[in-house]
Design a protein that fits this description.
This protein has 14 helices and 18 strands. The chain folds into 2 domains: 7-375, FAD/NAD(P)-binding domain (3-Layer(bba) Sandwich); 385-431, no CATH class. The longest helix has 19 residues, at 333-351. Helix 1 runs parallel beside helix 8 (333-351) and helix 2 packs parallel to helix 8. The strands form 3 sheets. Strands 1-16-12-15-14-13-5-6-4 form a 9-stranded mixed sheet. By secondary structure, it is of the alpha/beta class. The protein is globular. The chain has helices at residues 35-46, 71-80, 83-89, 117-131, 183-188, 269-279, 281-289, 333-351, 356-368, 371-380, 382-385, 388-399, 401-412, 423-431, and strands at residues 3-4, 28-31, 51-54, 68-69, 91-99, 105-114, 134-136, 140-149, 152-162, 165-170, 173-176, 198-206, 217-220, 228-234, 239-247, 291-301, 311-312, 315-317.
């Protein structure tokens, strides 16, 4: 295939302030201007706080992601007041096609759309700036500034680097929303696991012949992609996001702790991607008649609210840095924004009189309240190791409207199964009708 190096992108506006203009003090520093950081900055600025948002990349910038916006993302964008702007640029879809190794397919209805992260994150960051936050980039977070009073060490700012220049910025709160790479977590003293939960590889392919034919999100499981899955999501302008992902890609000790130098579990994402384009007809057709837009890119994933401490005095961790991505499917945009909003609410409460320690406790409790949803996706990871389970699930959903309705409820977050892998669940899966 030939290569087209650009995606259509909305105008950026002037959102990147020069690091040389960085102030000495503000109310809140937010490190990372992705969905979690921008959502938090937007909410904080709307509340009247002086917010400095920093990122190591000037915007717009690319971000490796499946780009799928599932119902929780729509809900968060609605809360932020940005849903209409996103939907005006996104490709809408009505269902997710769950596809098994034998080609069987069930279409799970949902509130869905697709917008490349380059555009989505720009909209979110612009929204934060419009609300009053100041965005400085490129700036790299190097560590915390701390003060100890009465034996309690409190984060009171951040050390930031631009080129060879170091900056110190003081604030009442520091929010770490730096995504999956561990460097910022390590620098903040919040990292509990260096290795990621999973890895993904994605690219963009333009193929006008599939416009109007491949209109829904497709997720595919097959024995040739064991321990993982493939996807094709339709983007605007005849472009398709195609990729593969693997959860639990890094080894752990038996006690579940990080092994430090843990390595990939025999994962070769490029080989998996090639297998995907052979075994799935739509992937094969997309690649055969398509044109690359950019190149294949890989990225780590942090899932299941694991791998980082959530808070310490003066500091909160949010978004994918806190493990906000779902295992099994790698969806994480909605929960990143959701946790970013929760972090902002905790900080706002502290400025309105809530004790700092109580604000942190409330934040952690609200994030931990999401754990049952993550456990569901963790249990579903059995499908990645045993792709034939998808064929069974498709067969069951096609014969049971109740099963399909419950699957849609999981997607829409109106239904959380009590147990996905229990004998009772499999009995209902195999024999329930209606």
């Amino acid at each position: 295939m030939s290569v087209d190096s650009t995606l259509t992108l909305a105008p950026s506006g002037d959102i990147n302030l020069s690091p040389s203009e960085l102030p000495a003090q503000c109310d809140v520093i937010v490190v990372g201007a992705g969905p979690a950081g921008s959502a938090a900055a937007l909410e904080l600025a709307r509340a009247g706080l002086d917010v400095v948002l920093v990122d190591q990349h000037a915007f717009p910038r690319d971000k490796v992601c499946g780009d799928g916006l599932i119902p929780d993302a729509h809900n968060a964008l609605r809360r932020l007041g940005l849903l209409d702007e996103v939907l005006a640029q996104a490709q809408s879809a009505g269902h997710v096609g769950v596809i098994g190794s034998r080609g069987g397919r069930v279409n799970v209805p949902g509130t869905l759309s697709v917008l490349p992260r380059r555009e989505l994150d720009l909209i979110l960051c612009r929204g934060a700036v419009a609300a009053g936050a100041r965005m400085f980039a490129p700036l790299r977070f190097m560590g915390t500034i701390e003060s100890t009073v009465d034996g309690v060490t409190q984060v009171v700012g951040a050390r930031l680097r631009s080129g060879d220049t170091m900056h110190e910025l003081r604030a009442a709160w520091l929010l770490i929303a730096s995504g999956a790479p561990p460097q910022a977590l390590l620098a903040a003293g919040m990292c509990e696991r260096r290795t990621p939960s999973g890895v993904a590889l994605r690219g963009y392919v333009r193929n006008p012949a599939l416009v109007g034919r491949l209109t829904e999100l497709e997720v595919v499981w097959h024995p040739h992609m064991k321990r993982g899955y493939g996807w094709i999501f339709p983007c605007p302008n005849g472009v398709f996001n195609i990729g593969v992902g693997v959860a639990h890609s890094h080894a752990k000790r038996r006690d579940g702790q990080d092994r430090g130098g843990a390595t990939m579990r025999d994962v070769n994402l490029r080989s998996m991607f090639d297998a995907f384009t052979r075994v799935h007809p739509h992937a094969r057709e997309l690649m055969a008649g398509g044109q690359w837009v950019g190149e294949l890119k890989g990225a780590p994933l942090r899932c299941s609210l694991e791998g980082a401490a959530l808070s310490r005095p003066g500091l909160l961790v949010t978004g994918e840095a806190a493990g906000s991505t779902y295992a099994f499917t790698g969806e994480g945009i909605g929960k990143a924004m959701e946790t970013g909003i929760l972090a902002a609410e905790a900080v706002i409460d502290s400025f309105r009189g809530t004790n700092e320690a109580q604000a942190r406790t409330t934040y952690e409790q609200r994030v931990r309240a999401l754990v049952p949803r993550y456990r569901l996706y963790e249990k579903a990871n059995a499908v990645n190791d045993h792709p034939w389970l998808v064929d069974l699930l498709v067969w069951s959903a096609l014969r049971s409207p109740k099963r399909l309705k419950r699957m849609s409820g999981v997607l829409e977050e109106t239904h959380i199964p009590s147990s996905l892998m229990s004998p009772g669940a499999w009995w209902r899966l195999l024999f329930e009708r209606g």
